[in-house]
Amino acid sequence: MFEVENRFRGMNVTRTVRFTDELFNELNETAKKNDVSFNVLILQCCKYAMDNMKGKETKSSTKPPQG
Q1: What is the mean pLDDT of residues 17-43?
Q2: Crossing angle, helix 21-33 and helix 38-51, to 10 degrees?
Q3: What is d(CA 37, CA 7) in angstroms, rounded to the nearest whole number?
Q4: Per-residue pLDDT for 47 more than 80?
Q5: Distance from CA of residue 2 to its chain's centroid?
Q6: Which region, left, alpha or beta, applies to residue 43 given φ > 0 means left and ψ of -120 to 50 means alpha?
Q7: Is the pTM of this model over 0.70?
Q8: SS3 of 45, please?
Q9: Residue of 19, 12, 10 lying closest to 45 (CA atoms)
Q10: pLDDT band for position 18 (50/70/90)?
């Protein structure tokens, strides 16, 4: 389950991301309700999505090449 935490530090890569109005408003409200910055919430959402992506190979499941 996804839980919002205020744990990201040392954020130093700047990018521009465009959101739909609806998604932006939902994310903004979620950040406010959980007392974290919008940026921290976005970082957590991205990290959670990457960690839970279907079909993602993990280091433990990756087999070395045979040859």
Answers
A1: 96
A2: 100
A3: 11
A4: yes
A5: 10
A6: alpha
A7: no
A8: helix
A9: 19
A10: very high
